Amino acid sequence: MSAERPAAPSLTMGRRSAxxxxxxxLPALAxxxxxxxxxxxxxxxxLEEQRYWMREAIDGINQRAEGAPRVYENVRKxxxxxxxxxxxxxxxxxxxxxxxxxxxxxxxxxxxxxxTIRFKEELRHEANAGLDMAVRRLEPIKQKHKHVSYADxxxxxxxxxxxxxxxxxxxxxxxxxxxxxxxxxxxNGRLPDADKGTSKDTAAHLRQIFGRMGFNDQEIVVLxxxxxxxxxxxxxxxxxxPWSPVTTNFNNIYFKYLTTVKWTPETVPETGKMQxxxxxxxxxxxxxxxxxxxxxxxxxxxxxxxxxxxxxxxxDDFSVAFEKLLELGT
Length: 330
What we know:
Strand content: 5-15%
Largest sheet: 3 strands, antiparallel
Helix content: 40-55%
Strand order of the largest sheet: 3-4-5
Order of helices and strands: HHHHHHHHHEEHEEEHHH
Structural class: mainly alpha
Radius of gyration: 20 Å
Mean pLDDT: 86
């Protein structure tokens, strides 16, 4: 799992376009002049390789699904095809799985993966801004496979998303039961905020939120590693930008950036929120105050350094912690 992937096969201009247009159902970003055999732009190369490896990962998922209970075999395949059509949806699916599970309270035994995030009352929670789109995009799969609960569908989508983006395989078991009542929607505020004013207060807030679910410092840090993929949008979280230059490659670059990059406070023009910015090669990347809190806290930092140095340890520990997250209260 930690081995480096081989280079993608070299493709001519025509075969590259065919891969994008036919195999993935996505148009090429630009057309070459007739008869020309010029190299694609850097952006085209990046997108093409990204989709090539996502297709490879999906093929692997489909092969493993053949040995799974048949009722879930086609669900996995349909989720994978959704990501093949739109690779940028995969990080959002991880967020949906996490937010649908991370409301659990170990004391009251309320919240957790019960499918309540499909209710508009929970989608209105500030932390869930933008996830209504994710719920809608998975609805056709739910209607096609009516035997699958929403809770199982949302969590399985997160597991498949991690895998197709090159992350670890997360053990997933079916059987979550959907709540049928909006009375089971938990109070707003059970998910973590990105900023509590100071790094010390933000770290304390993370421990309070994750501790309510039963997570310790190591698990808080390793789960934060999901920020290696995706990006923030001012219209949703109020923050702006990606954590890494390649938003659909699940790896330990998040921890490497936290420990090696010089981060500068900056203000998001659209919202006035404070975040941290830096240049990573040609790309502009960002970190939330809650990310920076991990390296400024004496309890969190050793785990950040560990995962920055050891991708296999990150993958192994993330797989265990994410499985635990998706099974809270079940």
